[in-house]
Design a protein that fits this description.
115 residues; 5 helices
Length: 115
């Protein structure tokens, strides 16, 4: 149940990002749910591999390249989903940061029932 609630909250976080950044567009809540699902899969499967492959450049840039990686993955997700559009790389980086912060804040509102 907690996983489904987190999925819906991530979709709401994506909708909140669209209100804050006009260069990111989501056509509806269903598209936001699909985009949150795709972003979750990308962050679970692709990001760890790319984080390891780009570790040298991330260390040289003192971690700033990780923001670029997040933006690229956010932009990649928009390429797969009709109705979810990110216009420009800078918008993708800022949108990924906002999405991460909003999704984290919303998920912190859910109590964790472990122990």
């Amino acid at each position: 149940m907690r996983l489904l609630l987190l999925w819906v909250l991530n979709a709401l976080a994506l909708l909140a990002v669209t209100y804050l950044l006009p260069s990111i567009q989501v056509s509806g809540f269903g598209v936001a749910l699909l985009a949150a699902l795709v972003l979750g899969f990308i962050n679970t499967l692709v990001r760890p591999v790319l984080a390891i492959l780009t570790l040298p450049i991330t260390l040289v840039t003192l971690g700033i390249f990780y923001l670029v990686l997040n933006g690229l993955l956010f932009w990649l997700a928009s390429a797969f989903i009709p109705g979810f559009a990110v216009h420009g790389f800078a918008s993708a980086v800022v949108g990924a940061m906002l999405y991460g912060v909003i999704a984290w804040a919303l998920s912190a509102l859910i109590p964790n029932n472990k122990g």
